[in-house]
Write a structure and sequence with these properties.
Layout: H1 2-20, H2 23-29, H3 47-54, H4 60-70, E1 72-73, E2 79-80, H5 88-99
Antiparallel strand pairs: 1-2
Length: about 100
């Protein structure tokens, strides 16, 4: 019986992790769409503009994922606030979706 409980708990944890890894759901869950859209600038740049800006940078994925978690200040009135509640894995998954928006 104890082995069944362990197997079920592991299955549920795996299913939860898989569901949480869907980048589009993560972008909605963390409300990124309040400031960003796929192809139009809102309070923040569009995902397409972000992808274009970082496309040729060697560390693009690491840079964008870090900015999601620690925030960033640009030259305009608005800035990207830090989101420490976003796990590193979630930030990396969201980054893959953002960078891929123009592909």
């Amino acid at each position: 019986m104890k082995a069944i409980v362990v197997v079920l708990a592991a299955s549920l944890a795996g299913a939860t992790a898989a569901a949480a890894a869907d980048p589009q759901q993560l972008l909605e869950r963390y409300r990124c769409n309040v400031c960003h859209a796929a192809h139009e600038p809102l309070a923040g740049p569009s995902y397409a503009a972000i992808a274009d800006h970082y496309r040729h940078q060697k560390q693009a994925y690491a840079i964008v994922a870090a900015k999601i978690r620690v925030g960033a200040r640009g030259g305009g009135l608005w800035h990207m606030p830090p989101h420490p509640e976003v796990s590193r894995a979630d930030a990396e998954a969201m980054t893959r979706a953002i960078i891929a928006v123009n592909e």
